Amino acid sequence: MGNDEQYMRRALELARRAEAEGEVPIGALVVIDNEISGEGWNRPVAAQDATAHAEIQALRAAGQHLKNYRLPNSILYVTLEPCAMCLGAMFHARVARVVYGATDPKKQVLKSQVKVEGGVLASECGALLTRFFAAKR
After folding, report:
1. What is the pTM of this model?
2. Which of 62, 70, 99, 103 has CB 3.0 to 4.6 Å from 30, enough for a Cys bridge?
3. Active-site positions?
4. What is the pLDDT of residues 94-132, one digit of tens each?
């Protein structure tokens, strides 16, 4: 848990990449044995793919890197509380732990057997999203 902030900072960098591409600024990464195995950022608009969420991109990258879609003992870091689709993907990938930044008050779906810890750099993660949506209005 000591590295949570370090990895969430990397997720924030990926979120800023999504923002620079005009996407909702959400970033994610998969860590196994203290090594980043996959990274992703929101890309639904660019990919014209509703499933191109940051978490899905990170899971896909980790699976390709490890040549296995199952990622036991992995930790997924994401700047926003995952949606039900992404949670389902994490379940199928056998993600052991999820750490997210900002809570999505519209969702609150993370109620499963996956160990979940929220609130890591929550203010910074939330501020990035707030700034993004304020600029869109």
Report:
1. 0.84
2. 62
3. 55
4. 999 999 999 887 665 555 566 778 899 999 999 999 999
